Amino acid sequence: xxxxxxxxxxxxxxxxxxxxxxxxxxxxxxxxxxxxxxxxxxxxxxxxxxxxxxxxxxxxxxxxxxxxxxxxxxxxxxxxxxxxxxxxxxxxxxxxxxxxxxxxxxxxxxxxxxxxxxxxxxxxxxxxxxxxxxxxxxxxxxxxxxxxxxxxxxxxxxxxxxxxxxxxxxxxxxxxxxxxxxxxxxxxxxxxxxxxxxxxxxxxxxxxxxxxxxxxxxxxxxxxxxxxxxxxxxxxxxxxxxxxxxxxxxxxxxxxxxxxxxxxxxxxxxxxxxxxxxxxxxxxxxxxxxxxxxxxxxxxxxxxxxxxxxxxxxxxxxxxxxxxxxxxxxxxxxxxxxxxxxxxxxxxxxxxxxxxxxxxxxxxxxxxxxxxxxxxxxxxxxxxxx
Length: 386
Ligand SMILES: Cc1ncc(COP(=O)(O)O)c(C=O)c1O
Known about the structure:
- The protein has 3 domains: 13-73, no CATH class; 87-208, D-amino Acid Aminotransferase, Chain A, domain 1 (2-Layer Sandwich); 218-375, D-amino Acid Aminotransferase, Chain A, domain 2.
- The chain is built from 10 helices and 20 strands.
- The protein has helices at 69-82, 114-117, 136-149, 158-172, 230-233, 241-252, 296-304, 306-310, 324-328, 360-375; strands at 13-15, 27-29, 43-46, 53-54, 64-66, 88-94, 99-101, 121-129, 132-134, 177-184, 201-208, 218-222, 257-259, 274-278, 283-287, 316-320, 332-337, 341-348, 351-352, 381-383.
- It is globular, with a radius of gyration of 24 Å.
- The chain binds pyridoxal-5'-phosphate (PLP).
- Pfam families: Aminotran_4.
């Protein structure tokens, strides 16, 4: 393995400044924060049970343990293990500690990172399939574009970022799952301006996912949550509150997804996927990317779909404004993205799409992308050296 770039911000270990009543032998990284300032007023209990120190507990209703760094990490680790999550986090890279960890207890980011408390960060993903990263370079190009729009200067050049991502997947030993990564304004303070952040930060995490791709049809509703204005919808920043609320709205209505319309009432996208239609004229029709995220999967589908045109299964491929009327009377409707790949929509609001079943073009496009992930050209498949 080639060595990683020199860490940009190695945290000095500093003693915790606590009250006289507590043994302050523990050390924590400078960027780990204690919440609350009232140590003087707390009843401090060593988590290990030894040497309890009582300080004016009149304002306290429960005992809050004061933890050493190692104790805190151990608790994070235990907490993770108890979560019983279907997702396993196998490795994390952080430019804060300048390396990769496979210990879930260390997979944390500092509170004073501006991405955490101001949303000043951008992110992207890439699928891991059969020990290869799918469309890594396309996703890397997009995160760098998002970073530039968000005025975040990455801590390393493109080649180093790419090398770190590949090495993180290699260290994780994951062969199927996803890689998520973030560029943030960095750590420094809790101000609004990032001027106190001296160095941007880079984080990446590998998530194992062995579940098979599902291709059953889903229901969609129209989102009542406002879509982000084009300046923000076209970049992949961490500000996903509208997207989360939109997904929750779908779930509250027994649907899988809520579809956004743009400011002019045309069909836009879903909260983490693009949409496309097969029209009555047998055209593949997709909203253009000027006011929404330019999906890497959607762009790849536009290319792969050309095979269906050559085979006579599709008449044409078109990107443009799509009205709700056109969408709802389409023969097929589909969601397209790294997470769903290609997923049929069989009902939108009260309107049944086509004959209400998963359509043949949607299925053919799903097969094409699965094939591409397993045996596509080197431009879309980057091997991971394990
Ligand atoms: C808002 C939004 N639109 C579209 C997409 C699909 O993009 P991609 O295919 O690159 O995953 C995503 C993916 O996360 C998204 O968040």
